[in-house]
Amino acid sequence: MPTPSSRYDAVIIGGGHNGLVCACYLAAGGLSVAVFERRGVVGGAAVTEEFHPGFRNSTASYTVSLLHPKVVRDLKLAQHGLAIVERPLANFLPLASGDCLKVGGSLAATQAEVARFSTRDAAALPEYYAMLGRVGDVLRALLLETPPNVGGGIADWLRAWKVGGRLKRLTLPERRDVLDLFTKSAGDLLDRRFESEPIKAAFGFDAVVGNFASPYTPGSAYVLLHHVFGEVNGKRGAWGHAMGGMGAITQAMARAAQARGVAIFTDSPVARVAIRGAYATGIVLADGAEIAAPRVVANVDPKLLYLRLIEPSALDADFRRRIEAYRCASATFRMNVALDALPEFSCLPGDGPHLRSGIIVGPSLAYMERAYFDARQHGWSREPIVEMLIPSLVDPTLAPPGKHVASLFCQHANPQLPGGSSWDDAKEEVSELMLDTVDRYAPGFRASVIARRALSPLDLEREFGLTNGDIFHGQLTLDQLFSARPVLGHGNYRGPLKGLYMCGAGTHPGGGVTGLPGHNAAREILRDARRRRM
User: Residue 254's closest CA among 34, 523, 52, 522?
Assistant: First the structure.
C-alpha cells in the first residue's frame, strides 16, 4: 500500500459513495485529493462482500434507483464497469388473506391488479402518479442546488429567490400538493386518495423504509416522495439491481477517481480533524500520522464528525448543542441469507416476475403503525415490516449454481433498547423473528436458509460509522432538510471551521445512494478554491 503524502489540496474522510464522487469532481477541477477509509474496502454502506463461502451480496445498501444520472454520466461509470438492470415489477405484497398485490410493469397492469380490490382506486391511480410526478419534478429541480444559508450574503439571497421562482411557476393546486407532501403524513395522504388497504400499504412502505416512524407521522409523506424521485436507465420511478451488487457502483466510482489521480487509502481510520485557530488544517490518522490539507471534506454523518472527530472547544456551544440534538435513527435491521432453494409464496407459488421485485411483508398501514409503536415500547417490532429482494435471480455471480442470496431489509429495530439491553444480546432472537415472518407467507423459507448474516443498528454503527444505525446520516424530517441539513446556517456544505466541508448524506438532499451530496459539495469547494486564487 502506498504511503500518503504529507500534504494534499483536499483530504476526504470516508470512502463511501459520496466521498468518492466528491473526490472525482475535485480532481477534475485540478485539486490533488486523497480519500481515507477506515475499512479495508471503499464504498461505505454500498459494498458487496462474501458473507458465506460462495455467497456474495450487497452488505447494507441493497437496491438502486436514486443514483443521479448526471453523476453516472460525468464519472463515466458505465465505462468503468457499472451495469444496472431494472426490476420487472416494483413491488409484490403477499397478504394475510392469501391473496397478493403486484405493483409495476405498466400502469394498466397495476390498475388491473388494484381493481381486484377497488375499481375506484384503480381509476385514481393515474392522477396519483401524475401528482407524484409533478411534485417530484420540483424536488428533482432542487437536488442539484446548494441550499441558501439563512443569514448569508447576496449569493444566498439569489439562491432563495431561485427556489421561490420555481414554486411560483406552479399552479395553486400544485403548490398545495407540494405542501402536503412536505408536511403531512403518508397515511393521511393515502387515506384521502385510496380505500383499499393493499395499495395504501404498497405506497406507504416508501414512507417508513429507513425511517423510524409511523406512516401516520407528520412529514412521512416527504420520505415517500424521497424514495420515488429516482430512475433506472432513464425510466423515472423505477428500481433496479447493480450487476455485482451495490459494491459495483462504488468500485466503478473508485476506478473513476483513480483514473483522475485521486489517492485512495483503506485501513486508514481518521482519529481527528487537525485544527489551528478557526481553521481545519488537515487530519490525524489513528496511527498518529498527520496529513495536511487546506480543505478537509467529511463524508461521515454530522454527529460522528462534530462529536467524535473535532474537539468541543473548537465549536460554538449552540452549534454543538444542536448537533447533539440532531436525530439519527432509521431503525433498520439488515440481513443477508444464503438459500438452497427459491421461496414459494402461498399466494403465488413458483418462479416469476414477483420474485424479482421488492417483496414486502407489510400488508396494511395499520400493520406498519403497530410495528412502529411496538418497537418504541418493546425494542423491535414483533410483527416486523420486511422487504426481501433475491438479486441472484438476475445476477448469478452472487451465488453458486442452483443457489440464491436474499436481502432482508427489516423495520423496526429501535437503536436504543429499553432497560439498557444490548443489541449484541438481542440480535439472534430478532434474526429468528425475521426468518419466521417471511416463512409465514412462504412456508419452507426458513428451512431453505443455508447461512445468514445479520446487522443490528449497533452493528451498522460499528461497521459503517452510521450513528444509531441511521442509513440516511440523519432522519429526513422537515427540520433536518434543505437549508437546515444538518444545522441551519451550515446547509451549504461548509462547516463552522474555515476549510471544513461536508459531503455526506447528512447534507442536502439527504440519504440514499444518489451521489448528489458529493457532487454539490465539490462544486462549492471548487468555487471557494477559485475565489482563493483570485
Answer: 34
CA–CA dist 458, 142 (Å, integer):
33
Greater confidence, 6 or 433? Answer: 433
- Measure the CA–CA gap between 254 and 305, rounded to whole angstroms: 23
Q: What is the CATH number of the domain that holds 74?
A: 3.50.50.60
* pLDDT reading at 165 higher than 80: no
Instruction: Report how far residue 72's alpha carbon sits from residue 44's, in angstroms, rounded to the nearest whole number.
Output: 18
Tell me, yes or no, whether 369 and 436 share the same domain. Answer: yes
Q: What is the mean pLDDT of residues 260-283?
A: 97
Q: What's the rounded Cα separation, in Å, for the pair 109 and 104?
A: 7
Residue 2 in domain? no
DSSP-derived secondary structure letter, 237: T
Q: Are residues 441 and 501 in the same domain?
A: no
Please list, in sequence order, all residues whose beta carbon lies within 8 angstroms of the beta carbon of residue 41, skipping any fewer than 6 positions away.
Answer: 47, 49, 247, 266
| Boundary-marking domain end, from 215, 238, 261 | 238
Q: Within this chain, do residues 460 and 379 fall inside the same structural domain, yes or no?
A: yes
Four-residue CA torsion sign, 174, 178, 184, 188: positive
Residues 143, 219: one domain? yes
pTM of the predicted protein model: 0.95
**pLDDT higher than 90, residue 163:** no
Interval 370-420: pLDDT, tens: 999 999 999 999 999 999 999 999 999 999 999 999 999 999 999 999 988
- Report the distance separating Cα 162 and Cα 146, nearest Å: 11
The pLDDT value recorded for residue 156 is: 59
Q: What percent of the chain has pLDDT over 70?
A: 96
Catalogue the E-assigned strands of 46-152.
48-52, 55-58, 84-86, 91-94, 100-103
The distance from CA 363 to its chain's CA centroid, rounded to whole angstroms, is 23
Name residues whose C-beta falls within 8 Å of residue 15's C-beta, 6 or more positions apart in sequence. Answer: 35, 36, 37, 39, 42, 43, 44, 250, 254, 264, 266, 299
Q: Tell me the three cell numbers of residue 200.
A: 395504501
Residues 115 and 230 in one domain: yes
Through-space distance between the first and last CA atoms of the chain, rounded to whole angstroms: 37
Whole domain around residue 501: which residue ranges?
10-83+244-327+473-533
At which of 467, 494, 514 does a domain end? 467
The two beta strands, 380-389 and 358-361, are antiparallel
Higher pLDDT, 140 or 266: 266
DSSP annotation of 2 reads P
Q: Is residue 484 part of a domain?
A: yes
Q: How confident is the model at residue 155 (pLDDT cuts 50, 70, 90)?
A: low
Total of domains in the chain: 3
pLDDT band for 237, please (50, 70, 90 cuts): confident
Distance (Å) of CA 511 to CA 17, 227, 250, 301, 330: 11, 10, 16, 10, 11
Distance CA 182, CA 135 (A): 10
